[in-house]
Amino acid sequence: MTINKKGQVMILSVLALGGTILGATTIAGLLMVYQLRSTSDVANSAKAIFAADAGIDWMLYQFANPGSADTKPAFSNGASFTATCYNSFSNAIDCQDQSAVTFRSVGRSGASYRALELNF
């Protein structure tokens, strides 16, 4: 009695080839996801840098107008900033204090953070 093994070889070949194609398409899909994520981070990065710039402008306005009670601006695009002023001893102080020599603003949008610093 002889056993025909040609069918088994064909099934194993199809499974191996299918596994290889599946692995290649999975890697290609993952790379596409990284590309798309990178594209959206560029937009968030630009929003963050402009928010940091607005923070510097706001701190300079506060410095130039010591009696001002204006609040920090809010952005309609979801970005925000944190503003910190420092004196010559690197101590954080109020931005209306005339001894401020360093203004640091950190803009945030999504997962992107960008910082600007102005020194006198």
Protein model, in words:
The protein is rod-shaped and about 100 Å long. The chain has one helix at residues 6-64; strands spanning 80-86, 92-93, 102-109, 112-119. A 4-stranded antiparallel beta sheet has the order 2-1-3-4. The mean pLDDT is 90. The chain is α+β, with helices and mostly antiparallel strands and 120 residues long. It has one domain (6-119).
How would the blueprint of this fold be written?
Layout: H1 6-64, E1 80-86, E2 92-93, E3 102-109, E4 112-119
Antiparallel strand pairs: 1-2, 1-3, 3-4
Structural class of the secondary elements?
Answer: alpha+beta
Q: What percentage of residues falls in helices of 4 or more residues? A: 40-55%
Strand order of the largest sheet: 2-1-3-4
Instruction: List the uncertain runs.
Output: none
Rg over CA atoms: 29 Å
**Termini separation (Å)?**
96 Å
Mean pLDDT reading:
90
